[in-house]
Amino acid sequence: MxxxxxxxxxxxxxxxxxxxxxxxxxxxxxxxxxxxxIRDVCTFEFGTMSTNDSITVEFDANGxxxxxxxxxxxxxxxxxxxxQLNDLLQRALAVHxxxxxxxxxxxxxxxxxxxxxxxxxxxxxxxxxYQLVCSQTxxxxxxxxxxxxxxxxxSNLSATIVNLQWNHPLPNEFTHAGTETVQxxxxxxxxxxxxxxxxxxxxxxxxxxxxxxxxxxxxxVSLTEFFESLVAQFRxxxxxxxxxxxRSPCQTYGENLSIGATSxxxxxxxxxxxxxxxxxxPETKNGIFGNHWMTVVVDGYKERIGFSDxxxxxIAPEVxxxxxxxxxxxxxxxxxxEVIGGSKQEDASSCGLHSISTAHHHANPDIPLLxxxxxxxxxxxxxxxxxxxxxxxxx
Length: 395
Known about the structure:
By secondary structure, this protein is of the alpha/beta class. It has helices spanning 10-19, 25-31, 38-43, 73-76, 82-97, 121-149, 151-161, 181-185, 197-213, 224-238, 249-258, 317-327, 351-363, 375-394, and strands at residues 54-60, 104-109, 116-119, 219-221, 264-273, 279-280, 292-299, 304-308, 336-339.
């Protein structure tokens, strides 16, 4: 089993807590923030190592208790190097999985030259503390950025944010979104942070709600997983591996276009811009991870595929081939292809926001396109809408 502390997810942390229990309540109250709220994480003062001497620590795989003599040593030994901690976690999990009951011996930097025996819950404490320190850094920087770029909006938004839990899962309605609040929402606070698929899905979810509220029922704006599924099927067919026989969103959406139940199908497409200027669908093993977002509008009435790239790259041949392959299953002739109007970016990081704006505009022409000089504010406005939805669902 390979654990990297820098990539330790909440699920992995839960699995680790089954190897070693969480810190006892009394000790956790001193070593960890008093609550999981972002407010308390941001203001908590984490201890640091007080010496660079080397000692040996033994972890008791059975015992979880501690003694008064150990208490001052635990904060001192709270931050081993990541490589050493990674090695410790791997050996701890190996001992657990093999049902052995021996101690785990581990050398790290902390202080003194005598062996010290610590309870197994310190494994979880180390992992949890690393995540909490990262969370503190992320949110302190995010809130500071919000105050600098949007002082008029920051007061209300910050008051909402600090009362969220740093590790609270996002609601199911934000399909395909990240499972950790910290990793997801903080990027909206920074003027120049690139947005990922789960951010796009949050905004798409709200656009879909807006369309329903306005009575626009013949336009589909799909989540980013649709394009991932479409590309996977397209590539399997090209390799003569066959496509899945079970019903998929690709089939449902295609049929809805062909019978007129859907007039437009709007897709946010993640692509890769190469140094030579070519635009391709990136080759990945799991999902699609490119470096640019664009909008594709499939118009079933006009039998047209419209491309809108916020950088003005125009039509991407490989993306066109993928969509033509899909539509050929439901229409008798190829769709025409053209560049359509959309929002344009003037920086290197806001393609996601401009692609979202284009998608919203083509779904409902009453929604104006985003202008480049409003990009940063537009980002924060989305954060406000997402926070409102989160609060409604959590309460």
